[in-house]
Amino acid sequence: MAAAVHAQPGSGARFDWGLTGAAELGRVCAALVVVDVLSFTTAVEVAVGRGMRVHPFPWGEQAADYARRVGAVAAVGRRRTTPEHPWSLSPAALRAAPVVPDLVLPSPNGSAISAAASATGLPVIAACLRNARAVGRWLQAEGYGSIDAPVGVVAAGERWPDGSLRPSVEDQLGAASVLDALSDVSGGLSVEAAMALAALASTPDVAAAVRGCVSGRELIEGGFAADVAVAVQLDVSDVVPVLRQGVFTA
Q: What is the pTM of this model?
């Protein structure tokens, strides 16, 4: 059992990493923000902004079965798209794909965290660099950010080949962008949240940092530079995807 101190008590905005961090903050926070810049939450922002309902689902072949059960289209891996099935985790592809009412969007990080967090019954918000300020405004307008109604901001991170968490530059900067929009909340920031915010303050060019970090280079060198280009657009969106009853909607 985690110690009570691990939940960062006494602050209105808190920060942690990955599935375990989300579970810990989900025990004590009134709302959770999930940040997976490359690319789940960016893809959610794009899809929801186009009018799609997004169902998060852990990565795996079962996603197609789940999509059939709920009457949705299942997104596939970036390299498995076809002209007949263009829906994937690629934000750039989702900007051009036909709009469908319901989209199952699996991923091993942000989507898995969101799917698990939905069981808490808390509002779960998908944030990225594109909508970080809008998310911050929405949270404060809804009354989140006090000690009595704290917000937990979770950087999804990536995975090492052995499945362990690899903290990632892009998600720390995305989470910090949300925390920056929450920096004047009545409950203040936890030390962890303040340190994440300090990383943003020391980054003069966020877009360049994301393009140059491991995750950004991996996508660019793999032929998906367009996805990074979409993801590094800062505060261009007012879309706030909120997960309720297992589905992200605006």
A: 0.96
HSE-CB of 29 using CA atoms within 13 angstroms: 34
pLDDT of residue 2: 65
Segment holding 19, helix H or strand E: helix 18-28
Residue 169 in tokens:
């530059």
Q: What mean pLDDT, rounded, does the chain reach?
A: 95
What is the pLDDT, as a whole number, of residue 50? 98
Spatial contact of 239 and 250, defined as CB atoms under 8 Å apart: yes
pLDDT of residue 59: 79
130 three-class SS: coil
Residue that the structure tokens 């996508």 belong to: 219
Element (H or E) spanning 103, and its range? strand 102-107
For 202-250, the pLDDT digits (tens) are: 999 999 999 999 999 999 999 999 999 999 999 999 999 999 999 999 9
DSSP string, 147-186: SSS-EEEEE--EE-TTS-EE--HHHHHHHHHHHHHTTT-T
What DSSP designation does 66 have?
Answer: H
Give phi and psi for 11, each to the nearest 5.
-140, 155
Long-range contacts of 218-225 (CB under 8 A, 24+ apart): 219/38, 219/39, 224/78, 224/90, 224/92
- pLDDT tens string 15-42: 999 999 999 999 999 999 999 999 999 9
Q: How far apart are the first and last CA of the chain?
A: 35
- Give 13's strand partners: 151, 189
Alpha helices (H) in 97-236, listed in sequence order: 110-117, 132-141, 169-181, 191-201, 206-212, 214-221, 225-231
